[in-house]
UniProtKB/TrEMBL annotation:
One of its GO terms (molecular function) is DNA-binding transcription factor activity. Gene3D superfamilies: Glucose-6-phosphate isomerase like protein, domain 1, Winged helix-like DNA-binding domain superfamily/Winged helix DNA-binding domain. SUPFAM superfamilies: Homeodomain-like, SIS domain. Transmembrane segments: none annotated. One of its GO terms (biological process) is carbohydrate derivative metabolic process. This is MurR/RpiR family transcriptional regulator. Keywords: DNA-binding, Transcription, Transcription regulation. Residues 107-249 form the SIS domain. It comes from the Bacteria. Residues 1-68 form the HTH rpiR-type domain. InterPro entries: Homeodomain-like_sf (IPR009057), HTH_RpiR (IPR000281), RpiR-like (IPR047640), RpiR-like_SIS (IPR035472), SIS_dom (IPR001347), SIS_dom_sf (IPR046348), WH-like_DNA-bd_sf (IPR036388). It comes from Companilactobacillus zhachilii. CDD domains: SIS_RpiR.
Length: 253
């Protein structure tokens, strides 16, 4: 749904998501001042996101908060710590709302049909790739994983058309991963990319994109160590769905 937002509206929606716990107490004028956007932008954005306006959006948050007793234990938590906790909740909630069931089903089918699977990742995404590798191997899939730049670029040129490449990249711009995706694409190899950037360089070489939501807040701004939680959620859902579908197929057989 966020695809139809302009850049300023997308900025505002990200700002709202990062400060969702405060919104019920903010008037439209105060939010306009805090986010440095016009009140018209606020109204337009909330309407595009399915509400009748800011008042409707704010009221639904208030109602949801009253009905949501599962977070009462956080009432006495320091405000900044609470924001850090809810940052993770927002990432998961938004990632789940962005997931396309059809894309998951297509990806499951691709994994099932592929004789060989190659997983490429760099940085913190390597931990997710390693988990996927182990799980796929336990499911009797012929799977290899690499995080080495030279190996990725060399290996990707030799992958057979019948294989599948899975790329895990938060921003989709890591040059070695882009090169690997391009090599696979040129060889007619199917590529599934798990990312939070649907307009990335890798995306144009990907047959399927599984998209997550990346929070704009980072508590380590001087380093590229942003949370990979959205990618972790998607990878787990994908492999859980694969197990479910393959088990169902065995039962039918």
């Amino acid at each position: 749904m966020t695809k139809k937002l302009s850049s300023s509206e997308r900025y505002l929606w990200d700002y709202i998501q990062e400060n969702l716990n405060d919104i019920p107490n903010l008037s439209i004028v105060k939010l306009s001042e805090d986010a440095n956007v016009s009140t018209a932008t606020i109204v337009r954005t909330t309407k595009k996101m399915g509400y009748s306006g800011y008042t409707d959006f704010r009221q639904q948050l208030i109602t949801q908060g009253k009905n949501n007793s599962q977070y009462q234990n956080l009432e006495k938590v320091d405000h900044d710590i609470k924001q850090a906790i809810f940052k993770n909740k927002y990432e998961v909630d938004n990632t789940l709302s962005m997931l396309n069931v059809g894309s998951i089903e297509d990806a499951v089918q691709k994994i099932r049909e592929s004789d060989d699977i190659y997983i490429f990742a760099r940085g913190f995404s390597e931990f997710i790739a390693q988990e996927m590798l182990v799980k796929l191997q336990l499911l009797n899939k012929n799977c290899v994983m690499s995080s080495d730049p030279n190996i990725i670029m060399t290996m990707s040129k030799r992958i057979r058309r019948e294989a599948l490449v899975i790329i895990i990249s938060l921003n989709g711009e890591t040059k070695e991963l882009v090169a690997g995706a391009k090599n696979a694409f040129n060889n007619g190899v199917s590529t599934i990319t798990i990312t939070t950037n649907e307009t990335s360089s890798i995306a144009k070489y990907s047959e399927m994109i599984l998209l997550g939501y990346k929070s704009q807040t980072s508590y380590f701004p001087d380093y590229e160590v942003r949370s990979r939680l959205p990618l972790q959620v998607i990878s787990r859902i994908l492999l859980d769905a694969y197990v479910i579908r393959t088990q169902n197929k065995r039962e039918l057989d």
